[in-house]
Amino acid sequence: MAMQNLQIVVEDWPDPVVMEDVTGDPDEVLYGLYTGTPLPDRDTGYGNTTPDVITLYHGPLEEDFPDRDELCYQIEVTLVHEIAHYFGFDEDTIERYGYD
């Protein structure tokens, strides 16, 4: 199994403190966030840990994409982007593949 010990959750809006930690700007728009240890960074000592988490924020998604088809597409893009972080891809690599 490629993905293990991973939760996907949906929250209303990102916490401004988290936003500032992640982006440097508490007012930045964030559709999703991966929190955890990427697969390439896990070693033999990794285990018996809480799950990594991919959080989708439906407030910003619904606000920025009121059209249902556009919303569904952006949810897909966001989820693929965060899954890429789980697999160890950095922002530059993800952007090259068009999931920025």
Structural account:
The protein is an alpha+beta fold. The protein has four helices and three strands. Strands 1-3-2 form a three-stranded mixed β-sheet. The longest helix is centred in the C-terminal third of the chain and has 19 residues, at 68-86. The model has no long low-confidence stretch (mean pLDDT 91).
Detail the topology: elements first, then pairings:
Layout: E1 6-11, H1 16-23, E2 32-35, E3 52-57, H2 58-64, H3 68-86, H4 91-96
Parallel strand pairs: 1-3
Antiparallel strand pairs: 2-3
Summarize the structure.
The chain is α+β, with helices and mostly antiparallel strands. Helix content is 40%, strand content 16%. It has a three-stranded mixed sheet.
Keywords for this entry:
alpha+beta; globular; 4 helices
Strand order of the largest sheet: 1-3-2
Order of helices and strands: EHEEHHH
Beta-strand portion reads 15-25%
Estimate the mean pLDDT confidence.
Answer: 91
Catalogue the unreliable spans: none
Could you state the oligomeric state of the chains shown?
single chain
Distance between the termini: 26 Å
Silhouette: globular
**How much helix, percentage-wise, in residues?**
40-55%
**Helix-strand makeup class:** alpha+beta
Computed over alpha carbons, the radius of gyration is 14 Å
Q: What is the count of DSSP helices, taking H or I runs of 4+ residues?
A: 4
Main sheet specs: 3 strands, mixed
**Overall strand count:** 3
